[in-house]
Amino acid sequence: MERAPSRIDQDPADRVLRALAEGFPKSVSNGAKVRDGFIRARVDRGDLYEACTMLRDRQGFEHTSMISAVEYDNRFEVVYHLYSYQARLLLELITTTPKDDPSVDSVALVWGGANWHEREAFDLMGIVFKNHPKLERILLPKDTMYHPLRKDFKG
Amino acid sequence: MFKSRDFLKWSDGIMETVLRKSVVGDSIDLLTRDFFNWATRNSIYPLHFGIMCCALEMAVASAPRFDAQRFGVIYRSTPRQCDVLLVNGPVSKKLKPALRRLYDQMPEPKWVIAMGECAISGGPFWGSYSIVQGVDQFIPVDIYIPGCPARPEALIDGILKLQKVIKENKKGLLTGR
Amino acid sequence: MAEMWINMGPQHPMTHGLWNLKVKVDGETIMDAVPEVGYLHRGIEKICEDRTYTQIIPITDRLCYGSSFTWSHLYCMTVEDLMGLEVPERAEYIRVVGIEMQRIASHLMWLAAFAADLGMMAGFIYTMRDREVFIDLFQAMSGSRITYNFPRIGGVAHDLPANFERDALRACDYTEMRLREYEDIFDDSKIFRLRTEGVGLLKKEDALNLGVTGPPLRGSGVRYDIRKDTPYSVYPELDFEAKTHLGCDVFARYRVRMEEMWESCKIIRQALKKMPKGKWRVVAPRVAPEGTGVARVEDPRGEGMMYVIGNGTDKPYRLKIRSPIFVTVSAAPVMLIGYKLADVVSVMGSLDMCIGETDR
Q: Of B57, C71, C337, C349, which is least surrounded by CB within 10 A?
């Protein structure tokens, strides 16, 4: 017998937040709805690949809008903006890496559109994406030694 | 054995002495210098090379409103057939060797016009880590056109000034004097 | 057969802007393609960390110089999201009129370059002349021809000049008449259709996965337009449609852009009629609070997005810019493999590349 979908799941924002919190209870935190059509969550970098695969396959997030890299005093943060065409929902997913080991799993095999965004984050900020098909410099000349967007680089 | 290579070298030497280094070359130049100079300055062929916003104004300068073709300006796609290199945008460190190679590929006589603030000194991106502050750091420039972006009328004014510069430095085509 | 890599660019008449396309050809058929960008990298994101919020507006103009109003408007929207500012309604309507005029001017510029690449110089001459009509309107509005520096954080720089409404309506009438002529010239030209139909196919699943947005996505059958689906500014109150085409090839993208120009004329007419009187600017605070701001717009080339992090001073801590062409160019190899070398010009021309926003 088909069970009718519960009323909690009618709102796509709440459904996605609940799926994230239940699928990865230890890694996901700070799930919140910022405004209509925009939600935000944090995830540990160990579970990032599974979370992204789950988001693409079961929650309908087909589009990677942007992948940004931010440097703070004691950590690096990689911010993923993902968009779902069916639910018209923008999800901001933030991962943290320690300062001396800026590396994250690559999601270029989940979404092809993330490929060049990750290359650019590597080029300008120095974040290493593991299992990326071709992690090379893209905007600066190939033999550049520095990563310009770091705070300790004075151009 | 008669080799064509030797014959070419011999005839090249004869031409060199007769035309370029003797009185025959000087007198031909005296007769034709003004005519060739008039032809050169009225048929300036820039290179089809657009970097940034000033390139849009360069394209519009050949559109019907500001028509640069009435001054003899026709864009060519390969540097081997051009007189003038119009640099119209900031030159990044990745582009610098390519631009130098384009300049070297152009045959003499050649001139360079720096169009827009970015080519003159770096423009609004002055102080950035990845651009060269002004194109005259590695290429000799003849005419500077200010503006950000430079209006098409300013570009046509720059071309007319280049014509005046060419007229004042008349050189014979054979001897170079 | 001999296979070899050919370098198309950085100086090549097809490339509007500087980028390099390495194609591996076997005879005339393309086996593989690798685009290479970065010849125009100016380090804008690093420059922006050293300038105040108002000093960054002219720099964002020069991101994509083919449609510069959209980018400075996007930046102002992002900072208004960070600061929590409410923009007056007259300013929103002036911005919408500017954006739609910029969309028509940008598409006309694309059509000029596309026609010139395919060998139809008549198309180049006609469209450049018609674009001048809108450039004159922009010059009356803001003082400059292509990089305007007109939107401000909290509104626009100053009010519209006298007689602007009359001139803009005349421009819309003239453009609609010329669009009908262009459809006659381009759609009925047999060579144009031979060079564009069936070339550069991009299927719907590939387009969605590779992150392609804008006219290439709508030309593959996905009806998605940020102005309709997640509207911003005063777009909810305006009546227009998002146009798609099911062809998935170069001709479909051309049809999508032509129809977008018709819709833009409609939007300009409505916005001019509905524009209220009132203030056109709110004074913005000099120092931004700590937090983040995000905004997305429908650029003529796709989805543009900016992300700013403020830290309590008058300079941003981090500004990240998402450019639509950066992702569309990475999807170019899918559209090129299997076609002939002469089709490269049609396919890359149909993507409307503006390298300023790719390289930042």
A: C337
